[in-house]
Design brief:
By secondary structure, the chain is an alpha/beta fold. It is built from 15 helices and twelve strands. Among the domains are: about 140 residues, 3-Layer(aba) Sandwich (Rossmann fold), CATH 3.40.50.10860; about 150 residues, Rossmann fold (3-Layer(aba) Sandwich), CATH 3.40.50. The relative contact order is 0.14.
């Protein structure tokens, strides 16, 4: 298993699991089982390119734990995808689903590819080929993939069609994050970003602050950061800075987020936005704001830059953007770090809603989805906050402890660890 756990992200996960496990005195057999994935799948993904040549890519699906229910987790298409990263993210999904009290296990998958280098037709053939290779391991009652970095609702539509064609009948529950027209849920695209803001509201409230009186900086302006920024803007927060791969933009009086979104869609990035100053990603992370939300990739805040952070609260929109060492340092400085397994859980919550709707063929309105999501995110924050206050531990360890307690109890009841 060393090749699965050797990556920095997985090592951070294991550090947090060990700390939380000691805190709650978890059974050592349960802890050992929760440290490693149940199954790691590597597949070759042959694709006929537009030049009529066959090119083979490497795909992964890691299924970590299914004590609470079917495996659940996203698929990312990115040039830096590797088996250890996917394994770490699958573990985080297990802990996230447990923390949010969802009847789902944890999984993750991906292909090592820069999707920007593919045409749409090549992307479709890649997705269909990958789906065929994963076919024996996924399904509505086995493992339910969803979109992640580099994938979208269109990717899920292709997966749904491929899986359904090969199995002979419609299987809308095999993936989530689909278009509404073919069994998707209202609110899925914005769910992760919306969940970040719901959690931000709760984090501010325990410090006797309100969203409309707060300043926010968001690293990342993609599927999570864009929706988080837009929701914060609607709630009258002052979003002073955002960034994407091209760099960042800053306006001390607050950015007009709808206008910035239109600009980014028109120009392909936020670079050169005329109503703001240009700043670097490093400068954004060091801004003196009420909330800093890293919504890009992992390890954004680490040993090299943690001393520069001046935000009062960090809400993790990405997976693993603050290292374990940085979390401890920031906690000692009085900076609250709301961890990813809580803060970015909105996506999997609404994915769960979508899965349920597909099973019963009864679909909810956008308002119903939003209200149900808010209830779960608020309740989950309160549970972690109470544990943190009682144990005098940071929010990351507290969230993991709550998650492990639920998993340990379920494993004991099922007879899996003793």
């Amino acid at each position: 298993m060393d090749f699965l756990t050797e990556g920095e992200l997985y090592q951070n996960v294991l550090q947090n699991v060990d700390k939380a496990g000691k805190l709650i005195e978890i059974n050592e057999n349960a802890l050992e089982r929760l440290k490693y994935p149940r199954r790691a799948i590597t597949v070759s993904v042959p694709v006929r390119m537009d030049n009529n040549k066959i090119k083979t890519f490497t795909g992964y699906r890691v299924q970590h734990n299914q004590t609470l229910g079917p495996f659940k987790g996203g698929l990312r298409f990115h040039q830096d995808v590797n088996i250890s990263e996917v394994a770490a993210l699958s573990a985080l999904m297990t802990y996230k689903n447990s923390l949010l009290n969802l009847p789902l296990g944890g999984a993750k998958g991906g292909i090592t590819i820069d999707p920007k280098t593919l045409t749409e037709s090549e992307m479709q053939r890649l997705t269909r080929s990958f789906t065929s290779e994963l076919g024996p391991f996924i399904g509505p009652d086995k493992d339910i993939p969803a979109p992640d970095v580099g994938t979208s609702s269109q990717t899920m539509a292709w997966m749904l069609d491929t899986y359904s064609t090969e199995f002979g009948f419609a299987q809308t529950g095999v993936v989530t994050g689909k278009p509404v027209e073919i069994g998707g849920s209202h609110g899925r695209d914005s769910a992760t970003g919306l969940g970040v803001i719901f959690v931000s509201e709760k984090a501010l409230s325990v410090q006797n602050k309100k969203m409309e009186d707060s300043t926010i900086a968001i690293q990342g302006f993609g599927k999570v950061g864009l929706h988080a920024a837009n929701e914060a803007f609607k709630l009258n927060a002052k979003v002073v800075a955002v960034s994407d791969v091209s760099g960042g933009v800053y306006n001390k009086n607050g950015l007009n987020i709808p206008d910035l979104i239109n600009y980014s869609f028109k120009n392909g990035s936020i670079k050169g936005y005329p109503e703001a100053e240009t700043i670097s990603n490093d400068e954004l992370l060091a801004l003196d704001v009420d909330i800093l939300s890293p919504c890009a990739l992992d390890n954004a805040i680490n040993k090299s830059n943690m001393e520069n952070v001046r935000a009062k609260i960090i809400v993790e929109g990405a997976n693993g953007p603050v290292t374990s060492e940085a979390t401890s340092y920031l906690h000692e400085k009085g900076i609250m770090v709301v961890p990813d397994i809580l803060a970015n859980g909105g996506g999997v919550v609404v994915s769960y809603f979508e899965w349920v709707q597909d099973i019963v063929w009864l679909f909810w309105s956008a308002e119903e989805v939003r209200d149900k999501l808010k209830t779960i995110m608020y309740r989950s924050f309160d549970t972690v906050w109470d544990f943190s206050q009682n144990s005098k531990k940071d929010m990351r360890i507290s969230a993991m402890a709550v998650s492990l307690q639920r998993l340990e109890k379920a494993m004991k009841l099922r007879g899996l660890a003793w």
